[in-house]
Amino acid sequence: MSEYNFTEFKDFFEYNLKKYNRDSEGVKIFTLNDLSKRLGYKSPSLLSMIATGRRLPSNEILEVLFEEWKIEKNQREIIRIRLEIEKRMRKNKPAGLLLERLAKIDKKSKYQMIDLDAFNSIKEWHNLVLQMLVSTPDFKEDYTQISYLLKRKVTPSQVRKGIETLLKVGLIKRNPKTGELESATPDSSNETTHDIPSEAIREHHKGMIARALEAVEEQSVHERHLNALTLKFNKDKTDEAKAFILNFVKDFNSKFYDHASNDIHQLNVQFFGHTNSNHVSSKETLQ
């Protein structure tokens, strides 16, 4: 994957900030305030908001950062598209066309982000599994057999409806010559968008968590792996922890995704609090 295959712009910002404001021994050369002055801004507040993810940069600021950090021209367009995708996702707007553009430009990326607009139509957990199953070498469009392969967790009727939905939103297609189903996107794994308050995404997570609970009883320890960690945690590091988890998921996918396999597995990662903090409102938005 490209080193610019960041999930959020603040990750790209942090990466370059660390790369270019330290000397060969890792000692800081200048602060965020110094960088602001170098870029012609009176206050570091704007860059501070960008660094923490509270604000995304304008196109003008982005181009200034490109020049400051001497970003290669062939990488700039990838970053521009990723930033625009993030802006649209934050506003719950569809980004399918941008995702297609990105896939054509950044061909090294096997990691596909599902467009929220399409996800609203495929919130049932099994639809993304069906999409992945269609791309397996031995796939046959036999709804009863597919139901069996999915451990009878879905009926043949649900399989048929799921495939119809995937065809409708363009995540799979029929070969014009053979009529057989095939993936409409590059061979890749699927990740749900994160930090977007969407009922569709919440329903999808509930479905996948339910499958994990069933696996505790139905699958042997050789077939599945469950691990839990309870720890004391500083909430000020929540963004850092999320970024760490997202990078782990990407690394896991990069190492273990096998395009020649007929088996579909699921990796779920849950990170949540057990306790309330005094400063957290009970009305805080669920995501």
Automatic annotation (TrEMBL):
Originating species: Bacteriovorax stolpii (Bdellovibrio stolpii)
Name assigned to this protein: Uncharacterized protein
NCBIfam families, alphabetized: Fsuc_second
Phylogenetic classification of the source organism: Bacteria, Pseudomonadati, Bdellovibrionota, Bacteriovoracia, Bacteriovoracales
